[in-house]
Specification:
mainly alpha; two-stranded antiparallel ribbon
Length: 532
């Protein structure tokens, strides 16, 4: 008889209890902080040699109040997940995405008959291209929370190609976070860490680019091998039974086509959106896209407007569903434009997708009541994920209120004082990985650790650039498994993958990536690298 695995909420609540116990054992301590300017932004950073003991604050009954505190800490990401769930439920009620996937698979089936493409495998090319795209996004502008909006698209695509939800998560969530690990121009990690370390912004990009290529290539290879195995023997997937939800949805779509005529609502919507985008084109004729220290200014919104008008006119003459798919496509284009050109974050992105959901409902001739019901249905589907995110935030709340995070950091740094260069760079890497469990925010972790570790690396003759890379790798890899990461928990909730199933399946991949990243750190110690 198989032992039943505890629910994800039970696992995370157990971690809260464990962290509360630590506050009774680990001495309380704190650093002094000062405000510095990094790339024009004020950051609170640690004052060197300022650690001191403070009054203990052991946590007891707070394990129960941490749930509410977690909601408050993670309110933005929780609201984002709920809005995404509701918006995409409205979109999905039109069957536009499902029908689009079905039509896409019909095209790939024909392409598979081509001698060259058939030998490589069209579905393999899809996996490679999708993973390269998301990894590049993670590497260049730090895509993380934004992946939640794509999980709900890529997972059904993976299922439809004969794979499983784990493959879908590898294609989008893991790819983006591997890119985040091998960051080249990510302003939220590399930019802040180098600024706090006194290094030229985005210096040493050559070796970081090499590291990104290696990490991304390995992640793609792992995904291709696993996907091929699942396609041969679907029952071998640990998500085979749970993925019945996605397979059922796919089966309901197989007879659907993009043939529902576009009604008056869709035509009126096309006209109004074209006029609105035309106004925005005059309002914002030029957009400056920022990628790291590089900038390029383009007439992006006018170009998108023109493209939208042409493609929508073609789509609306064919079907309402194709027009809705076009709305989704341009939502994604505006997402990339907003993030890279206008500094959008959760508030703007959630507004964008909410608008997309409402517009999709209108184009599908749904009443206001029907749109509301579908939105509420989508929100309900995301409630478990929201609860898990809130409870995971409770872990950080307990550690913070227990006043032991700084003590943990101080103790880990002390362990490396008498080590050699290799052990020190490895120790920094492990330390950042451990701290990442308690502080998933890359920018917050940089502000906390780099003022301590950068001067320390000078003392032992280690390049500050190597210290930044140890932070970079430690920040990225454990994000893919730590229960305190709201993005991971949100992605698993959307994909309907239990946390314990993910951990049991992913830990070997995590160890491989962890070891590979350590190997990539060694040349920063033994070789003369440009920018190091």
């Amino acid at each position: 008889m198989l032992k039943k695995t505890p629910h994800t909420l039970v696992i995370i609540f157990s971690l809260i209890i464990f962290c509360a116990l630590l506050t009774w054992i680990v001495p309380a301590g704190a650093f002094l902080y000062e405000t510095v300017e990094v790339d024009g932004i004020s950051r609170e950073v640690v004052v060197d040699n300022s650690y001191h003991r403070v009054e203990r604050s052991p946590q007891s009954w707070q394990i129960f109040s941490s749930f509410l505190a977690g909601f408050e800490r993670q309110a933005a990401i929780i609201a984002f997940v709920l809005i995404i769930g509701g918006a995409f439920q409205i979109l999905n009620s039109s069957r536009a995405v499902d029908s689009g996937i079905y039509s896409f698979l019909q095209v790939t089936a024909r392409l598979d008959k081509h001698p060259l493409l058939g030998r490589v495998g069209v579905h393999n090319l899809v996996i490679i291209l999708v993973m390269l795209l998301f990894s590049a996004f993670g590497s260049i502008f730090g895509m993380s929370e934004e992946t939640l909006a794509f999980v709900i698209i890529i997972v059904p695509l993976a299922i439809s190609m004969g794979y499983d939800s784990l493959t879908g998560l590898m294609m989008v969530y893991v790819a983006a976070h591997v890119g985040f690990t091998g960051a080249t121009l990510n302003p939220f990690t590399i930019g802040i860490a180098q600024g706090l370390s006194g290094l030229p912004l985005f210096s040493g990009i050559g070796y970081r680019l090499f590291s990104w290529v290696i990490l991304t290539g390995v992640a793609i290879a792992i995904t291709l091998v696993y996907a091929a195995r699942v396609k041969r023997q679907p029952e071998r997937s640990p998500m085979y039974r749970a993925d019945a939800y996605w397979r059922k949805r796919e089966a309901e779509t197989e007879t659907a086509t993009l043939a529902k005529p576009a009604g008056r609502n869709a035509r009126l919507l096309f006209l109004l959106l074209t006029l609105l985008l035309g106004f925005l084109s005059f309002r914002y004729p030029l957009t400056t896209l920022t990628a790291g220290a590089g900038e390029v200014t383009l007439p992006l919104i006018p170009a998108i407007t023109l493209l939208f008008a042409v493609t929508s006119l073609i789509a609306i003459r064919k079907s309402a569903q194709l027009f809705i798919l076009n709305l989704l496509l341009f939502t994604i284009l505006f997402l990339v434009t907003g993030v890279m050109g206008y500094g959008w974050y959760l508030e703007e992105i959630s507004a964008l997708f909410l608008a997309m959901g409402l517009l999709a409902g209108i184009a599908n001739n749904m009443t206001a009541g029907a749109i509301t019901r579908e939105f509420i249905s989508g929100v309900k589907d995301m409630l478990t994920a929201a609860l898990v995110i809130a409870l995971a935030g409770g872990i950080i709340q307990i550690l913070t209120e227990g006043r032991i995070i700084d003590t943990i950091l101080y103790s880990l740094a002390g362990l490396m004082q008498d080590a050699g260069k290799v052990l020190t760079i490895g120790g920094m890497y492990v330390m950042q990985s451990v701290i990442n469990i308690f502080i998933p925010s890359g920018s917050a972790k940089a502000a906390l650790t780099m003022p301590i570790l950068a001067p320390f690396s000078d003392v032992i003759g280690l390049s500050r650039q190597a210290t930044v890379m140890a932070y970079q790798f430690g920040d990225g890899i454990t994000n893919m498994i730590t229960p305190t990461s709201p993005v991971l928990i949100g992605a698993l909730g959307i994909a309907r993958v239990p946390f314990d199933v993910w951990v049991k399946w992913f830990w070997k991949i995590l160890l491989l990536l962890f070891f590979l990243a350590f190997i990539l750190l060694l040349p920063t110690v033994f070789m003369e690298l440009e920018g190091f």
